[in-house]
Design brief:
Pfam families: Recombinase (PF07508), Resolvase (PF00239), Zn_ribbon_recom (PF13408). This is Site-specific recombinase. Keywords: Coiled coil. The protein is an alpha/beta fold. α3 packs antiparallel against α5, α6 runs antiparallel to α7 and α7 crosses α8. The N terminus is likely disordered. Strands 1-3-2-4-5 form a 5-stranded mixed β-sheet, with helices on both faces. It has a 3-stranded mixed β-sheet with strand order 8-12-13. A 3-stranded antiparallel β-sheet has the order 9-10-11. Among the domains are: 150 residues, Rossmann fold (3-Layer(aba) Sandwich); 132 residues, Hect, E3 ligase catalytic domain fold.
Length: 547
Amino acid sequence: MNTSRHQPGVNARPGRTGRSTVYPAYAQTGPESPTPGTKPIFLYLRLSKYHKDKADAIERQRIDLTRMLTAEGGWTIMGEYIDNDSASSAAIKTRKGWRQLNADIKAEKIGAVAFWKLDRTNRIASQCIEWIGDCQRAGVQLRSHQDSTDELNTATAGAKLVTGIKALLAEVETDSMSERQLASKRHLAEAGFHHGGMRPFGWMQGPRVTDAMGRTGIRLIPHPVEHQALKDAVDLVLAGKSLAQIGRYWKEQYGITTASGAYVYEATIYRSLVSPRMIGYRMRQVPEHQRGVKIDLLDYIARDASGEPVISQEPVCDRATWLRVRRLLEEAKTSKARKPWGSHEWLLTGLIYCQCGGRLYGHQKTRHRASGEKQVEYVYRCLTNRHRGAGNCPGSCTINANKAEAYVLGWFFSQITDEALAKARARRRAARSDAAVDDLLAQLDEATAEKNALLAKQGTSAYKGAMVTVLLGLIEDAQNRIDVLQRRVDAVELDHLVITDGPEVIRSWESKGIKEKRNFLRRMIQQIDALPGRGTIDQRIQITPVA
């Protein structure tokens, strides 16, 4: 890991860029009541950012409409409904000014509306015609700087025809613009170019380049600080660190914080680490998040004309490492054994077993004393009879959690002294000559070759659509076997120590997170067996060290 220090806060992540001017849905700009002899009228002003409108479009519309209504006479401008959005047909979802205008029309608060041009109101023909009809039925007069007043306010067939044609042309223009933008973005994605939006954490925009096919664009290059921070985060996840610990590490080591100077949110770190960008892939058309709907991001990566994934930026780690990180994060996210608020840490979860072969699970017991006082006790207990039926575990083991953890920690600390670590080194040297090591290495090579063969099948005709999920499952299975075999090989690797600095681990034990503590125990302990009965804790617990 990079140990260079940076001043905290100097690499604060910027907040999402907002609009240069934020407009309220409605603003009262005129008097409380219209001038005598005039009628009240309201303006609808809209800036379409992606329709080549300049930043002062709303001001220009206001000037034009004010001049027009003044020239007509008989009007008092009471207020303005304003929107600042895109030209997309989906933009209506976020148009708060438009929603407020229609709510006030329905409530009969408005008698007249003026807008610069009909396509400022709506660019979907059917909805535009329907809105004009609703206004006519509600008695709302419409005024436009660019459109005929008779066409907007009469119910004749000719007027409807002209209005419908204009609305349809506006919708066609929007669709054509959308098609051009999608085609442009498709080529940018295929070439591995960045096309705007908030830059991904870990990279930044590089110089403009031209690819072999003559397409010009900007590629992402590693950020001088954030890219190394992601590399460190990979190591920290593999070492058992939590996302919260990574956030603290980023702030202390690199000065990476939120825009307000706080630790980077755990959800932000999680999204960065599970993104296929980590292995150089470019994301493409990822659907909007829906609560309860889980997607595999590997299904939404850019591919070239031959169907191969596009490598658009320098990766943080290799694919096998990333799959392992992603799996560890997913397991931590869905774990049923995480510490509930206010309860015990359950240090031995996953390590301690009953004589029947089943795991012992943490359980909180509440006893009531004769005085009525409640006494909470934490225990590990076997749930085999509950899960598999009565009689599967004759002993039904239950053991006090505090005593069991204290005993295991005492054993663990005694094994990570300098003398014990030297003996562990000697055992690993001796284990290297064991013929079983060669067999493990052969199995590891076979599993790795299988995984590489599966990776090569990505994007082929045999694995399309729903079969992509099947292929990913096979890759995941192969990776699981590789991880298991790798751990077994590491256990007998020459000069590979379980823990390099035992005294330092002991000194810093209390400051470590529960996941990291369990990780240290697993490096030294293969399994803990708990026996039923009422004997002393040293009689009831048997520790099997890693060979």
